[in-house]
Amino acid sequence: MALLNFKKVEGPVAGTLSPEVESFLQGYSIEVMPRTAEKVEDFRALLPRGTRVYIAHIEGTPIEDMVATAKRLNAEGFPVMPHFPARIIKDKATLTDWIARYQGEANVDQALLLAGGVDKPYGDFHSSMQLLETGAFDAAGFKHLHVAGHPEGNKDIDPDGGMKNVDEALHWKQKFSESTDAKMAIATQFAFEAAPIIAWADSLKAAGIDLPIHIGIAGPAKLQTMIKFAIACGVGASMRVLQRRAKDVTKLLTPFEPTEVISDLAAHKAANPDFNIAQVHFFPLGGIKTNAHWAIENGGSAAVPVG
Description:
alpha/beta; TIM Barrel; eight-stranded parallel β-barrel; two-stranded antiparallel sheet; 41% helix; globular; oxidoreductase; FAD-linked_oxidoreductase-like; Methylenetetrahydrofolate reductase
């Protein structure tokens, strides 16, 4: 397959790009699963070299498939950040085995640690904090450790709909970041409206949590698809953006794009350079090819992970 020439892609649209959005998208990351990665013949035809690719570890996915996907992406020139979902990792021996496989076979030195979307833990772990406490990632010399953030809360963690437990967890992770040589950051669930994201990010900073934020953004997808994933993932008040769109029946089959939320966040970042959202992390709900092309068309073509 011929590789996409990113300079040629940029040229025809360069005059119409928003400088703020273009700057905000630099260093974006994107997420894949082994089964979706299999459908991509060559990621170099879709993503700028150096784009960080997260690999989601869904319950039931064999570790062999995860490692094989990481190995393939690394060989194609992409730094890989696999998920480590605490609740599907049986014990420390399993954790250290996974780390060793990723390092030995795929040259992985970064990870996203999260609780995972299963109700009953497989074994000893139920939270990302427990994974961090093992010391296994520090012992292996991992350079980047990301943890989950929830701008609109998480009812699995705070059943009452509040933020108490998620906030306490972030305070713990902030303190832990001071004891590790790895760079830590917060990778968040996606949301659809800038105002609550900005308010949440500002509240963390005011509370002394200065970990850089990689804000989750849902890539272009049909509205029905977006609503389905938003409900499944527990998206909060910003769902109203989709609900308003759903009232226009003429738009039900057209892709919903993250143009507004990205533009608003980019404008806020431009006006407030110390805003603690550092990068964008895409969830390609409408497909990685669709998401990758949207990112390129909007100026996201110089992906250099920095945190």
